[in-house]
Design brief:
Blueprint lengths: L5 E5 L3 H13 L2 E5 L11 E4 L4 H6 L3 H7 L1 E9 L5 E6 L4 H4 L4 E4 H10 L6 E2 L4 E6 L4 E5 L4 E4 L1 E4 L6 H12 L12 E10 L16 E7 L5 E8 L3 E9 L2 H6 L13 H8 L10 H6 L7 E9 L4 E2 L2 E3 L5 E2 L7 H17 L7 H34 L3 H13 L2 H9 L29 H7 L6
Parallel strand pairs: 1-2, 1-11, 2-7, 4-13, 11-18
Antiparallel strand pairs: 3-6, 4-5, 4-6, 8-9, 9-10, 12-15, 12-16, 13-14, 14-15, 16-19, 17-18
The chain binds flavin-adenine dinucleotide.
Family: Belongs to the paxM FAD-dependent monooxygenase family.
Keywords: FAD, Flavoprotein, Membrane, Oxidoreductase, Transmembrane, Transmembrane helix
InterPro entries: FAD-bd (IPR002938), FAD/NAD-bd_sf (IPR036188), FAD_mOase_fung (IPR050562)
């Protein structure tokens, strides 16, 4: 049944596009506003695993995802001379968890998600400057001097969210913004990254393998970590991470609060060109095989914000929890937010009063915050383990890879997989694997409308 309220989604990234797709299915009116002039080609490897694949199965997207992805069987950790330090088995847990880990390039996933939302509902070149709240509506103001009003605003506009800044300004003025939320994001790494054009499998046999080959190299002579992944189409996704110590971070004003972009990328490319690369050759081979405009550099900052909503505005994804990337949980948690928010919006009574909206946002945050916190902490630990370059990080890495048995490491990775939200106003897919999955509830409205009453 179509609903009588309008949702304005700020940002057409991972969370914004999934939310659009779900609101389309829920019969809720929405519009997506993205500041980029066109669909992005920026980004490197990303991954989805058992804690989000049930959603894609439910949405009938498993085949589409398989086409743009490769499944991970093994991840090799190398030292600077290409000696194998650790071989992490990615297959071992597949049976237990019911799904494997899919690796794809972000631009490919972005295109897939974009194709699932009607084109006339995504507006490019719409940069939001501010959000203004009134008792009965919320208004977005854009850099082209236009504006639009709706009932609800969703800030899906990433780590430097303009929506969050507007919301926090008004909460601060009212004296109700927690002190922690006034602090900057913490900065620890920066990343140079891209996805190559097709390369020659005769020169790089790993490209021809059906599974995703991952090689992570730690350099001891510099503070860099090089990560390389094979994706369909004989391409590599690659990134070079540089760990910045806290005192350097504070002074690193060139990059601080910069966004995903390629302006400063070329100078870092020159710095790393001669590094020996995973899979052979040097980093120059990967850099030269990547279109210049598809190479970007990004600050990897992190922060879990406490405040996720206020009045008619709510935040999802990086806008409320920016995570370090090594555990691959940032995009997954952004999408889980979108699912849980859509579920609660589906049950919102037709009259979108402030009281009803606030009730709905509170349910959303209560379910998501503890889960995001767990993923945030896991991401912090994994990033230090994989890319950290302080003496303690290096010692912990040696310990973890040399002495801690694989099954103990797997155990730590299992925990986030118990939580697998699905759309609660569509038929749910059964749990796969033998791992115990947290129970989900069907929407109250859906049960009434469909005459079903069973929790799943
Ligand atoms: C271009 C790009 C490349 C990325 N590449 C990688 C990668 O290779 N590996 C990785 O792990 N993560 C990458 N990320 C981050 C990753 O997509 C997010 O961490 C994760 O998916 C969370 O999704 P999100 O929707 O919250 O944020 P994002 O996916 O970052 O989406 C936010 C969207 O909001 C838009 N936006 C921002 N400000 C405004 C504004 N004022 N008005 C309107 N729109 C606005 C942005 O352009 C972006 O499209 C990338 C993000 C971007 C934007």
């Amino acid at each position: 049944m179509p609903r009588e309220f309008k949702v304005l989604i700020a940002g057409g990234g991972m969370a914004g596009l999934i939310l659009g797709q779900l609101l389309e299915l829920a019969g809720i009116e929405y519009m997506i506003f993205e500041k980029a002039p066109r669909p992005t080609t920026l980004g490197s490897a990303m991954g989805f695993g058992p804690n989000i694949m049930p959603l894609f199965e439910q949405l009938g997207m498993l085949e589409d995802i398989a086409k743009i992805s490769k499944l991970v069987d093994h991840t090799l950790v190398l030292d600077e001379d290409l000696n194998v330090v650790a071989d992490i088995d990615g297959k071992a847990m597949r049976k237990k968890l019911g799904y494997g880990h899919y690796i794809f390039s972000r631009p490919d996933m972005f295109q897939l998600l974009l194709s699932r939302v009607p084109a006339h509902k995504v507006f490019f070149s719409k940069k939001i400057l501010t959000v203004e709240e009134e008792i009965d509506k919320v208004t977005l103001k854009f850099s082209d001097n236009s504006q639009i009003s709706g009932d609800i605003c969703v800030g899906a506009d990433g780590g430097y969210s303009a929506v969050r800044q507007s919301l926090y300004r008004s909460l601060k003025a009212r004296g109700i913004l927690p002190r922690k939320d006034m602090e900057d994001l913490t900065f620890g790494f920066y990343n140079l990254l891209g996805t190559t054009n097709p390369m020659d499998p005769a020169k790089y046999p790993a490209l021809a393998a059906p599974d995703c080959k991952i090689e992570l190299m730690q350099r001891t002579t510099t503070k860099h970590a090089l990560h390389t992944f094979t994706v369909p189409g004989n391409r590599f996704c690659w990134n070079v991470t540089n760990h910045v110590q806290t005192d350097e971070g504070a002074n690193c004003t060139v990059f601080r609060n910069s966004e995903w972009g390629n302006e400063t990328a070329q100078s870092m490319c020159n710095e790393v060109r001669d590094f020996k690369a995973p899979f052979g050759g040097t980093m120059a081979d990967y850099i030269d095989a990547t279109p210049k405009e598809a190479i970007s550099i990004v600050m990897l900052e992190e922060k879990l914000f406490k405040t996720w909503y206020g009045s008619r505005t709510v935040l999802v994804g990086d806008a409320c929890h920016k995570m370090l990337p090594s555990a691959g949980q940032g995009a997954i948690n952004a999408i889980q937010d979108a699912v849980v928010l859509a579920n609660n919006l589906y049950d919102l009574p037709d009259r979108p009063t402030l009281k009803n909206i606030s009730f709905c946002f509170n349910l959303y945050r209560s379910e998501r915050y503890p889960m995001a916190k767990m993923a945030f902490q896991l991401s912090q630990q994994q990033s230090k383990l994989i890319s950290g370059q302080s003496l303690t990080d290096r010692m912990k890495r040696k310990m973890a890879f040399s002495y801690i048995p694989q099954f103990v490491q797997n155990k730590a990775m299992e925990k986030p997989n118990a939580y697998r939200p699905q759309v609660n106003f569509l038929p749910m897919v059964p749990d796969r694997g033998t791992y115990k999955v947290l129970q989900r509830r069907l929407s109250k409205r859906y049960q009434e409308e469909m005459g079903v009453s069973k929790a799943v």
